[in-house]
Design a protein that fits this description.
Helix content is 49%, strand content 14%. Strands 1-2-3-4-5-6 form a six-stranded parallel sheet. The longest helix has 23 residues.
Length: 196
């Protein structure tokens, strides 16, 4: 993670993200050909990519090349970067959604009070981090449940990442989160050990 801000600062993050898109699509196709399973997958990309290259063209070419349905690709973007981007980037994100890709907003817990994230109907899902629950009290729980309910009423799914224990899983379930991710459910797999 330490090198990502450096790449962004020097306007080179699109090089890494383009490589990752190509590699993930290729790997996905190999796994699909091995066991026939077509599960959705996520790609974390920088919103800066849209100002540095034609990211939509890259995504379209790679998904077409490997015959990946666009609705199986979840584009994850970090909340603090999306909020402060210009209209061009927002229009590109709207275009991505129109083309059938899912847009997930990661780490939105830090910016959840910004009503614009709710009102734009741009994102299919909001993703929170279980680390935010470390110093969670009753008031925090009431506030988060109200925000989750608001998201649900707008048709936005909620995901909690980083769930590592049954205690955290139980709390997340109480909050009404739609989906959970983390090592509590399954240890993260290393590609070289999974490859046929």
């Amino acid at each position: 993670k330490d090198f990502v801000p450096i790449l962004e600062k020097h306007h080179m993050i699109h090089i890494l993200d383009t490589y990752m898109i190509k590699q993930v699509c290729k790997d996905y196709a190999e796994f699909r050909n091995f066991d026939g399973v077509m599960e959705p997958f996520s790609l974390n990309i920088s919103v800066n990519d849209f100002e540095l290259c034609d990211m939509i063209d890259i995504l379209n070419k790679e998904t077409a090349l490997y015959e990946i349905p666009r609705n199986h690709v979840r584009i994850e973007l970090t909340a603090n970067k999306v909020l402060f981007k210009d209209q061009y980037v927002i229009e590109e994100l709207e275009r991505l959604k129109y083309l059938g890709y899912e847009l997930w907003l990661e780490d939105y817990g830090d910016f959840i009070s910004n009503y614009k994230l709710f009102s734009d109907e741009l994102f299919n899902a909001f993703k929170l981090d279980a680390q935010d629950l470390d110093h969670f009290d009753h008031d925090d729980q009431v506030i988060m449940q109200a925000q989750i309910l608001t998201a649900k009423r707008l048709g936005i799914r909620t995901i909690m990442k980083g769930v590592t224990t049954k205690q955290i899983s139980d709390l997340v379930a109480q909050l009404g989160i739609d989906y959970m991710q983390g090592s509590y459910f399954k240890e993260y797999a290393v590609y070289s050990r999974m490859h046929p």
